[in-house]
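#onboarding

Welcome to the new folks! Below is a worked example of what a typical request in this channel looks like: someone posts a single protein sequence, and someone else replies with the predicted structure as tokens. Don't worry about understanding the tokens yet, we'll cover that in week two.

Example request:
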Amino acid sequence: MKRVAIFGAGNAGQAAAAHMTKMGLEVRLYNRWANEIEAIKAAGGINLKGVLGEGFYKIPVITADVKEAVEGADLFWVATPAVAHEFLAAELAPILPERAKVFLNPGSTGGALAFTNTLRKHGGPKEVVVGETNTNIYITRITGPATVTVWNVGGVLFSTFPGKKREEFFAEVSPYYPSLVLSKTVLDTAFANVNAVMHPAGIIMNAGWIEHTGGNFRFYTEGGTPAVGAVIDQLERERVATMVALGITPKPFVEVFYLYGATSKEAVETGSCYIALRDSEANKEIMAPPSMKHRFMTEDLPFGIVPYKHLATLAGVQTPVIDSLITLASVVSATDWLSKGLTLEKMGLAAVAKYNLLNFLREGTI
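Example response:
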């Protein structure tokens, strides 16, 4: 791994570009909208601050031309929001090299499956391997023109589709990211999407307060009341039940959150998502969304709990809380999230029977 194409120059993309350059990799940074990378192009690179050290890192290719970014790269790192995965996969399909390795950071819920399915639909390389993390490796924000600050590089789960390629892919990227934890399948990573557990319940149950104050309250502490916590804890029980029914060993949310460095060991011992969120120093001061048209709704619902629901249907598991949150969110947004989000068909699972799911995840074909 020497040359990396990074797609998306937002918070995570800029952090990855600067960090990888610092680690000696040649980065080709792509962003769909040219105006959003003008400051980086003018500077010729990115200023990195925070826990990874401080310094300016020159980026040799900064472009809005996807073909230019792909040229000569041997790893394709996707740092876009999940809402852009389908567009990007369709753009990449005809130009990715054979046996390409694509890394989604993060994959959200079902991202690697959906990305692969889109590549296949658009004639992409037959032996592509798509890896994903369950959440973003970097806790980071853009803090100025061509400047990004990283506060933490968390422990995250990693797997690939097809799963039989996971150890090979892991061996290539883990020397650069030792906090990666290898998992069996991309449903292990998908079901560990922490944003799906945290955000839909919080934004729906705080809708009145968000609209009244414009988000002028602390989302996780002031908005994370015992009632909100009770709903999140029940959502967690439905998530775990679905995993068990599909033959996947569940990893509790509190353990995933602790691995990420986002809560206390004492909170983990309670087993409560509510207490884990309440005790999260990393999230303590984060303010609520300014409106209901926020990624907690537009991303963490359709690419978070909507695929949970469809996977639960495949598993034969009832999910009353997840169903209710999707219904309420659809009414609030005037959007049918159940069909607009990731369905079994979009994940390439429509023809996969429950009994054959694990084999499909491993082999990549029915």
